Amino acid sequence: MARDAPPRGDRRMQQRLARGEAAALGELYDRFASLVHSLAHRVLGDEDAADRVTREVFGYIWENPDAYDPKQGSLRSWVATLTQRQAVHRLRQNEAVLARDDGAAPAEVERKIQDASTAARADYIVTSMPAPLRDALELAYIHRRDYCQTAADLGVTADEARRRLRLGLQLLSTAHHQKLPPGGPGEGNGGPW
């Protein structure tokens, strides 16, 4: 599946990280730390756990800068994917311990993990979508405006408001069905990465 070309700066950032430039990691952290922390918190529901995942994700990036492939998408998407994988991995570990202690059914644990993962993907999709779509969804679903009121508030035609709402909802609908690509944090090798 073809993806949009990532920003030029993404490739340069990867090259700087590969050369071991600590300043590049600092810039990357400044750029994405709030995204990483909020996604991890959304999955784990715990501030300390989200802090740990944030450190782990940036540690992984520092140690594995070549794991990012600019041909696969933007650096932001890659960082979000790493975060989601690591947060889900941590949630699975935590839930396995709780299930062992409480006797919870594996299906119940997996449903809880899937719900948290879907919510995190939905949050990421909303924050990443173009502002006109996000604004239309916010007016319609948070402020309870119908499409005519949304159109008036946005200063667009009713048809344009419907189009924005439809596109925004189509993007959000992918949150439930999206699968993570293989590799990276939480995958396979028995460790967190």
From TrEMBL:
Where are the bilayer-spanning segments?
A: none
> Which keywords does this chain's UniProt record carry?
Sigma factor, Transcription, Transcription regulation
Annotated RNA polymerase sigma-70 region domain ranges read 28-95
Q: Keyword check for Transcription regulation, yes or no.
A: yes
Statement: the UniProt record of this protein carries the keyword Zinc-finger: no
Enumerate the Gene Ontology biological process terms. DNA-templated transcription initiation
Top-level taxon: Bacteria
Organism in which the protein naturally occurs: Streptomyces benahoarensis
> InterPro entries, alphabetically?
RNA_pol_sigma-70-like, RNA_pol_sigma-70_dom, RNA_pol_sigma70_r2, RNA_pol_sigma_r2, WH-like_DNA-bd_sf
Q: Name one GO molecular function term.
A: sigma factor activity
Q: What is this protein called?
A: Sigma-70 family RNA polymerase sigma factor
